[in-house]
Design brief:
- The complex is a heterodimer of chains A (112) and B (113).
- Chain A is an all-beta fold and 112 residues long.
- Helix content of chain A is 0%, strand content 57%.
- Chain A has no helices and eleven strands.
- In chain A, strands 2, 4, 5, 6, 9, 10 and 11 form a seven-stranded mixed sheet that branches. A four-stranded antiparallel sheet of chain A has the order 1-3-8-7, with no helix packed on it.
- In chain B, 0% of the residues lie in helices and 52% in strands.
- Chain B starts with a strand and ends with a strand.
- The chains are: A mainly beta (112), B mainly beta (113).
- At the A-B interface, strand 5, strand 9 and strand 10 of A face strand 5 and strand 6 of B.
């Protein structure tokens, strides 16, 4: 098992669809993150969960809804997305209070 | 507020040549500094990190970086580049305690044979 696993690796969805991205970490960490990586833009931190509580929400539109049921799993629920939401969505994990983050391979999302 | 600047968007080096990727940061306290590498379509892999102590840190794949507080820099170096090093490299800064990394815009490294 790799440290941080994201599924699916690729997702194409229509603007009216509802889908979810899944992230699972096997590193014994207790903080998890969602980042968005768009072409020609720096990585954008979307959400942070530390000890299963959301501690950061960087003005992300409500069409993105995170869920962290336990310290090993993180979801990003998507609904009524826009084409500009097409990007690589990266999940990461770390020990709570520490910045050394380990990343998954990402989900390439295309909104049509 | 924290910020990271990677001045070079693209760099091309010949295989076997030396490499230096620049990173400048802005942070009010002692920073924690990181370099990550990303191959196309993949996630980010941690190359090395600086928390404290020796300002020259060694990482994986033969990379090293030097922390220079006076210049607010954390440049990444490799003495001899291999074709497999072609990727995008990201510098990041974080607080000594926290859950937030700020990333630079990245530098794309091309290696020519």
């Amino acid at each position: 098992e790799t440290g941080v696993t994201q599924t699916p690796r690729h997702l194409v969805m229509g603007m009216t669809n509802k889908k979810s991205l899944k992230c699972e970490q096997h590193l014994g960490h207790n903080a998890m993150y969602w980042y968005k990586q768009s072409a020609k833009k720096p990585l954008e931190l979307m959400f942070v969960y530390s000890l299963e509580e959301r501690v950061e929400n960087n003005s992300v539109p409500s069409r993105f809804s995170p869920e962290c049921p336990n310290s090993s799993h993180l979801f990003l629920h998507l609904h009524t997305l826009q084409p500009e939401d097409s990007a690589l969505y990266l999940c990461a994990s770390s020990r709570a209070g520490q910045n050394e983050a380990f990343f998954g391979q990402g989900t390439r999302l295309t909104v049509v | 507020a924290q910020s990271v600047t990677q001045p070079d968007i693209h760099i091309t080096v010949s295989e076997g040549a030396s490499l230096e990727l620049r990173c400048n940061y802005s942070y009010g306290a002692t920073p924690y500094l990181f370099w990550y590498v990303q191959s196309p379509g993949q996630g980010l892999q941690l190359l090395l990190k600086y928390f404290s102590g020796d300002t020259l840190v060694q990482g994986i794949k033969g990379f090293e970086a030097e922390f220079k507080r006076s210049q607010s820099s954390f440049n990444l170096r490799k003495p001899s580049v291999h074709w497999s090093d072609a990727a995008e490299y990201f510098c990041a800064v974080g607080a000594s305690y926290g859950n937030k990394l700020v990333f630079g815009a990245g530098t794309i490294l091309r290696v020519k044979s």
